[in-house]
Structure to design on (182 residues):
């Protein structure tokens, strides 16, 4: 299997993560509307609503979509600096930035994985209203999202080694188009 075939398969996984995050946004909106309606009409809100949002919905919104967002070309945008550099310097600068991203994200991934596994082993939970809810399902989302982001950055690093002009994404994103006149 070539790198691009593997990347296309990986892209399906990151797209599924983005869809999951999108669904979580709509669940969050429905949850907030329900909470406000219950508070205004019934005089009481959903017990533990803040904790449920904080410990379940917000991690579901952020972490599964990290690699998809990075792969879309939105996050790293250096269009003011890079076009002014020579082609060779630009290539080396982009390669260095992506290599630093791989190292930093790898370290954060390992730390998040250790933290998540610790919570699973110790069966940590939080109080939501009058009920104790487990924390482990969303504690594992951080290492999952960061792991996917790490793989995305590794694909970028591998593809850049074979390209004449390095970039921050495997597929050229809108953030990597060089402006005219520079």
């Amino acid at each position: 299997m070539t790198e691009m075939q593997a990347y296309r398969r990986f892209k399906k996984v990151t797209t599924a993560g983005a869809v999951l995050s999108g669904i979580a946004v709509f669940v969050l909106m429905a949850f907030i509307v329900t909470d406000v309606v219950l508070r205004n009409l019934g005089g009481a809100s959903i017990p533990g609503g803040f904790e449920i949002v904080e410990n379940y919905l917000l991690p579901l919104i952020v972490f599964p979509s990290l690699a998809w967002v990075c792969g879309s070309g939105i996050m790293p945008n250096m269009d003011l600096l890079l076009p002014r550099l020579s082609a060779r310097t630009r290539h080396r600068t982009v390669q260095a930035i992506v290599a630093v991203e791989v190292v930093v994200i790898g370290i954060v991934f390992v730390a998040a994985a250790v933290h998540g596994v610790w919570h699973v082993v110790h069966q940590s939970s939080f109080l939501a209203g009058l009920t104790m809810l487990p924390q482990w399902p969303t504690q594992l989302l951080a290492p999952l999202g960061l792991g996917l982001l790490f793989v995305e950055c590794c694909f970028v690093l591998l593809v850049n080694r074979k390209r004449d002009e390095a970039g921050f994404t495997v597929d050229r994103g809108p953030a990597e188009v060089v402006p005219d006149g520079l």
